[in-house]
Amino acid sequence: MLDFELRRPTSLEDALAMLDTDDPSVRPWSGGTALMLMMKSGVFEPSVLVDLTGVEEEHASIRRLEDGGTSIGALATLASLQFDPHLASEAPVLGQALPRLANVRVRNVARVGGCLAHGDPHMDLPPILACLRGLVVARKADGERRIAVEQLFAGYYETVLDPGEIITAVELPTQTGWDSVYRKTTVRTHHDWPTVGVAISLRREAGLIVESRVIVSAATEKLTRLEAVENLLAGQPSNAALFTRAGRTAAELVETIDDAQGSASYKRVLVGVEVRRALSQILEEGSGS
Amino acid sequence: MSVETMNRNEGKNQPEVGRDVPRLESRRKVTGRADYVHNLSVPGMLHAKVFRSTVPHGRILSIDTSEALDAPGVHYVLTGEDIRAMFPHPYYGPAFHDQPVLALDKVRYVGEPVAVVLAEDPFAAADAVQMIVADYEELEPVYDEVEAVTSPVVVHDVLKPAGTFPDLKHLHGKRDTNVALDYQLRRGDCDAAFSAAAHVFEHEFRSQPVMHVPLEPMVSLAVPDHDRLTIHTASQSPSFVRMEIARLLGWPENRVRVMVPHLGGGFGAKLYIKLEALVACAALIARAPVKLSLTMEEQFYTITKHASTFRIKTGVDADGRITARRCEVYWNGGAYADIGPRVTQKSGFTAPGPYDIENVSIDSYALYTNRPPAGALRGFGIPQLVWAYESQADIIARELGQDPVEFRRRNLLRNGRPQATGTIMESAAIHEVLETVVERLEWAKPFDRGSGPVRRGRAIAIGFKASIAPTTSVAIVTVAADGSASLSISTVDMGQGSDTAMAQIVAETLGIPTEEVTVVHPDTDTTPYDMATLGSRSTFHTGNAVKRAAEDARERLARLAEEAGMPAQDSYAPAEVFRKRYGMQAGTVTGTGSYIPEYRSPDEDGQSPKVTPYWMIGATGVELEVDTETGHVHVTRMVNAVDCGTPLNPKIVEAQISGAAIMQFGFTMSEEMHFDAGQVTNASFADYKIPGIHDIPPLMDEYIVDAVQSGGPFGAKGVGESATFGVSPSIAGAIEDAVGVRLTELPLTPEKVLRAIRAAAGDPLED
């Protein structure tokens, strides 16, 4: 832990070249909020850290795309998401959720890309980006690809990213017609990591639910999209009875895990309650775009 | 009121005592200028890092330190045997001499210090620690305090009481037992009373292990001189550290100097002796200064709060009067006794609660287990006891169909009545404290318990605590030739505000503003003995010593004035006295004072006419909401009231009340050390959750009841712990009031609440 090399590329190409190795002790570094904890506790001992903040200028912006969607640079801080005026109208769920995501010091330095690439299931942002139908733009030395946020995660602290591949942006399609809600449940303290995170987006027409995204995280080994619940909602009028059924279905289908925050069976109950409450909340508030 | 009140106003318009003097150290702290041991560095200093046991119980077969010793920057790697080679009996502890400086022969818990690396920088030391290899013959461990009573697993082969406490002497040399102390009290005839009782209630309540988590982790620096040793340490008990290190080294006390600057919190974690023995021995072996700074994680391996099991049996007559109570309390002391046996006895005798009960039987057991040691933590065992007896009080009242407040009114002790020890209650505003909470919570008004998924409930709980007696404090007040005053005490201001309160006593007595009094921080070369800063004893004990010292200084000034031929008067401007007496700005006046309260040792039945100089009383009332679908509990309102006599500084007292209540709130709702095979699995703030600003009740009120403590300085007594007492049982009681389920094990997590609700509804959650 005493010695490692800190490299500071000034172009994305240089950064990718430095990361083009199978050596897992070579890692990219941006906000460092998770990596520093791992280094301090001895869980991770780097040989090389590649500091991405040298390319911040081109990769931290939040831009409206021509088709009405949004591109979020991977080096955008969480605080910049929280206060971005375009996102405030396009996806207000972000601004509503972020004040309870970690703390102001973390939000000021932690980056969107790192938050996704870390693969930690106990995060608030990935389920929200997943329910907003976000696509991760991933680049490595030999090319670029797009991965749906809900398909980014391969397991507990695992992603489908290849060695040397980094996230450069997250693209959100237009949110027009969609309403989204994120419900964070903690069981120890208010500002804890979520025990259960439920993110739901609905597109409704003429009183019927046309399309939806139902995402559960934190209680599960990895972020999970509950398509069976989405199917149950499709074409239905939104009402309390439907939401109760949706909650029950979510609780039955979800594979929760035991950990320090609680038993799998307790989290299963929470998932059911929170899916139902999230749906009711959308109905009541119509919050979203 | 009292003579004190008349004195305090003598010749002055603005009394210093009773004024909300802002804390003297506040500016230094908020501007980052306050001294802490963590910031201290001396030339040639070596940094220590501890290699810790990975097994809960085992015989040490070998420790290979060779690779670590060859690592860059490493000067020494020491094991227990290296310490023993230089110091033949390297065991320490306030109650038992049972804790080795580094593990000898056996390890007794995961995290126990086994070896120490001394290196030029802390990172080199940490790296080298990774290279040490220890081999153990693993032994069967015992973790649970009740199992430890009968377990064939024995943590210590033989008991080694320190000899400082007469009631521990009978344990000397006792073998093959984990019971470090079996305290008992008998009063009246419990068996007969239970037979005659209209109702008998039996319950068991458990509390979890928690940690103090001072934000400044423990830190000590030992600097050897050619025949002396200076220890800079974040300690609550510099006088004890000096005595214990001198004993360990076989030196006279005056060759050991202990200095304590500011503390970043203590709460009992930094009491008696913690890292000091290790840095002292290491520094003497290395002939170089040695500093050991623990990480937050390492604190969890150093000291904890006792987990406990309390079996309580209560007999009640047809009118709802408690006629008998039998208390069996098991304290999980971990691998080393620390001050656990004192907790067992000094808190044990209040186990029946502040109730007037004719027939009482108490058995309180200190147990050794293979867990990190447990010691003092804000409340010194009292919150674990109140948790049980106040929970049961609500259960009894509910079963009898009585209002829980009425039930308490009927049974609470009154001044003039004997407590379980036989000591007659005096200056104890128990009823006033209860009534204050009742009134502020508007108990008599109808209460809306809700109807949807969120239900509401409320409850009240009250507890009391005796002072640890007998203990001594000494103070020195120095008046300089310009009339400015300094106060030298070994009481440690760890954030509770004692410097300010003590300065107020000096200022009041000498007739000068508090802001002009300097408080000299503990330095055993210059500041006199104080037993320790613990158990809310400073206000009363140090306060009385300070008052006497200031009065002595005042009298000496008067004598000096007389020598100078000045006319006799009530008070003098000190600068003028010095000038008249010595012809210029010259001279010093030194006043000293010491204080030890009256105390009578209990007999073999635990009976004593004077078991404590004063009683501390605290009550809590809460209103809360329970989400019946998730088990979440939201405390919407908390009211705390205390009897602290007459407050010296009401603002500081209010902060002590809210601080104590919030700390116990964390121990009630979220804090718990988790173990896996003896290993703490959540030794950091990532997974050990203390409450944040969004967790505490949105409405919190602190009340100080109108009271005067007889024998207290200006009628005051301590208050650092009183608001911890009622928090846990009032919240559990309000949960039952809201949703009809009773939890008997802390903490009260949402999952436990939901499981209880579902079980009561006949729809239990699977495990």
TrEMBL record, chain A:
The keyword Flavoprotein applies. Residues 1-177 form the FAD-binding PCMH-type domain. PROSITE patterns: FAD_PCMH (PS51387). It comes from the Bacteria. SUPFAM superfamilies: CO dehydrogenase flavoprotein C-terminal domain-like, FAD-binding/transporter-associated domain-like. Keywords: FAD, Flavoprotein, Oxidoreductase. Pfam families: CO_deh_flav_C, FAD_binding_5. GO terms for molecular function: FAD binding; oxidoreductase activity. PANTHER family: XANTHINE DEHYDROGENASE SUBUNIT C-RELATED. This is Carbon-monoxide dehydrogenase medium subunit. It comes from Sphingomonas palmae.
UniProtKB/TrEMBL annotation, chain B:
Residues 7-25 have a biased composition (Basic and acidic residues). Residues 31-140 form the Aldehyde oxidase/xanthine dehydrogenase a/b hammerhead domain. Residues 1-25 are annotated as: Disordered. InterPro entries: Ald_Oxase/Xan_DH_a/b (IPR000674), Ald_Oxase/Xan_DH_a/b_sf (IPR036856), Ald_Oxase/xanthine_DH-like (IPR016208), AldOxase/xan_DH_MoCoBD1 (IPR008274), AldOxase/xan_DH_MoCoBD2 (IPR046867), AldOxase/xan_DH_Mopterin-bd_sf (IPR037165). GO terms for molecular function: iron ion binding; oxidoreductase activity. PANTHER family: XANTHINE DEHYDROGENASE (PTHR11908), XANTHINE DEHYDROGENASE SUBUNIT D-RELATED (PTHR11908:SF157). This is CO or xanthine dehydrogenase, Mo-binding subunit. The lineage of its organism: Bacteria, Pseudomonadati, Pseudomonadota, Alphaproteobacteria, Sphingomonadales.
